Hints:
Elements: E1 9-11, E2 16-20, E3 22-24, E4 42-44, H1 48-55, E5 60-63, E6 68-72, H2 75-83, H3 88-98, H4 105-117, E7 121-126, E8 129-134, H5 137-144, H6 147-150, E9 154-155, E10 161-163, H7 168-177, E11 182-185, H8 212-222, E12 231-235, H9 242-253, E13 257-261, H10 264-277, E14 285-289, E15 292-293, E16 298-302, H11 303-306, H12 321-324, E17 329-332, H13 340-347, E18 353-358, H14 368-375, E19 378-381, H15 384-389, E20 396-403, H16 407-415, H17 418-426, H18 431-441, E21 447-450, H19 454-464, E22 468-469, H20 475-486, E23 492-495, E24 510-513, H21 521-529, E25 541-548, H22 552-560, H23 562-566, E26 571-575
Parallel strand pairs: 7-11, 12-18, 12-19, 13-16, 13-17, 14-16, 17-18, 20-25, 20-26, 21-23, 21-24, 22-23, 24-25
Antiparallel strand pairs: 1-2, 2-6, 3-4, 5-6, 7-8, 8-10, 9-10, 14-15
Amino acid sequence: xxxxxxxxxxxxxxxxxxxxxxxxxxxxxxxxxxxxxGKPLTEEHPRFSAARNALSTFAELEKSPDxxxxxxxxxxxxxxxxALGFTAEEIESRIEEFSCVPIPPNVIVDIASWLxxxxxxxxxxxxxxxxxVSDDEGALEEVLSFNSVAQWVVIDEQQRLWVRxxxxxxxxxxxxxIGYPVDDRGGYLEGDPFPIxxxxxxxxxxxxxxxxxxxxxxxxxxxxxxxxxxxxxIVLPCGAGKTVVGLGVMNLVxxxxxxxxxxxxxxxxxxxxxxxKTDLRPEDVGEYTGEGKRVCPVTITTYQMLTxxxxxxAEFEHFALFSKENWxxxxxxxxxxxxxxxxxxxxxxxxxxxxxxxxxxVREDEKEDEVFCLIGPKRYEVxxxxxxxxxxxxxxxxxxxxxxxxxxxxxxxxxxxxxRKFRVASENPAKVAxxxxxxxxxxxxxxxxxxxxxxxxxxxxxNLGVPLITGKTPTCERSRLYDAFRDGRxxxxxxxxxxxxxxxxxxxxxxxxxxxxxxxxxxxxQRLGRILRxxxxxxRASFYAVVTLGSRDQEFAQKRQLFLTQQGYSYEIVEAATLxxxxxxxxxx
Length: 589
């Protein structure tokens, strides 16, 4: 291996990868160049973007300060790479290509070891039974030494290991916890046939067909109906048409389908998309929500409905929906939000085809391994910046506006405990003036203002005289306000956390985030995603994070930005005092 000292990557023995984003500028004499104040000049490292794209396939971004990004290689990140077809040699080659120092041997050994375990154990069907098999007898002996695994298998007189149909998910959970992801080739029950033909044109008469990447995603999941496919996750940016990918899969499977999503508004949007882009009739597509429970060949419900129970110890009454029909496909929309009770019922659904859709596999509860073994591995992903460059999602600029605390708020902040500090900083009253300036800056824009704390949002709505949507807003009122936003009767909406997910507002081109959920990376991705649908005028989108300078609010904002940084977005840092209300002439309002 020939190392290039100017390469941007340093690999450490603890499997952290340090990626330099910039390098020093040198003058004609080869000496470090300096600006007029004598500070060293830097420029983006010419290999940074290529290295970032290479690392994102098998490593997770953990920190992203201005000059040095920190990645970590984990078992799940390597197994997802393996599911996409990467070999240990290809991953090693990518690391070597960008490394400027020798790679610690243990890192390559660990990657090869983890990758070799993907598919080392398989579940295969034998008649009506399921067998745990491996080409490596030592692997079977090792996993059987764990009682957490052994209790879920039955060993016959030929020493074959049998798994009960109802335990397929449970044993996969047990095995992944000891570092053995299972390649489940046990196949699927045939759901009741129900053809779902795609429309050639929408209800408005516009031509309709899956885009190339949407079709590729659906095909990668389905794998021609073989046991090699039928489960897994499709990762695409918000605005890239994940719902359309779901329709493509439904068309390929051609069986009764159950769709789980985040809220009633999302249920309505799924139903509208299905009726608009397939040849199904209204009576074929049912909603199972608090407002009506109609089970049809295609049924759409919410995670909240399925996990509802009368008391904390009572049964989940609506879990019966999973068995009311012979479903051939279950779709988990926003799979990164899958609640723990749904994991439990999904463990028993391994005989059904399972499709997860998400913009990010990041889970704040670190249960990525649960998604991996119960829904399936990552089957397809396209980087956000790739789709942006092709015009399938809007070009976005991200700006962090830092607002100081005045003296009265500063004393409250300093006397508060850690959790209260975050809230005091998040609700900084000085943010209101910044929001007003940003609204004036985008006077012709369609603006979403998104926040975490209801008192803050109510006060802002009153101050600005604009509508507020929260979790308590009735569904009919939400739909009315969203419709008013779409047709231009409302230009500004304030939304609570309900605005994070499944809002189809294609003309929204400005998002102003005034408070967030601690360091939630998935939330940052979802909020940016609200404005990424391509604009009819080809204009750019603007995403503002308004944070309190030198506070816990600013610290957590940096953590939230990690995911978008990994996708290639950079944040311009602006002090509130320097922010003008004059529109940037390069930005479409």
